[in-house]
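Sequence in, structure out. Go.
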Amino acid sequence: MADIFGVIADATRRDILRLLLDRSVSGEQGTSVSHIVQELGVSQPTVSKHLKVLRDVELVSVREEGQHRYYSLSPAPLDEIDAWLIPFLEDESDAGAAYVSALPEPAAHAAEVVGRAAASVGRAVTVALGRIPGR
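Output:
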């Protein structure tokens, strides 16, 4: 299996992931290869090659309807990237870290998961606010 960091290092694959995310957020239940080709302006064989790589690391899922294939984002594998990035984004003076280390293992794990989720939401809000014109 390919390293997920290597997979998302490719700009075309990141563009495909962004397109699938945007369409998912807008309520689409999958995106056809032809739509991806049209939106990104790359050839169908190129899109198919990149979608295969994304399928191999389970970042996308595919639904078949007759001769058509519809791709959707499967963000769960991105948790590996999130887990790797979080230590670089956390404030080292965080007093909560001392409390987490004193907890029993199951509770510490739960606190870590909740903390990651909160950090992800915090980053998403920061990015969203940064997109507001005039801010």
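Check: Helices lie at 4-8, 11-25, 33-40, 44-56, 78-89, 96-101, 105-130. The mean pLDDT is 82.
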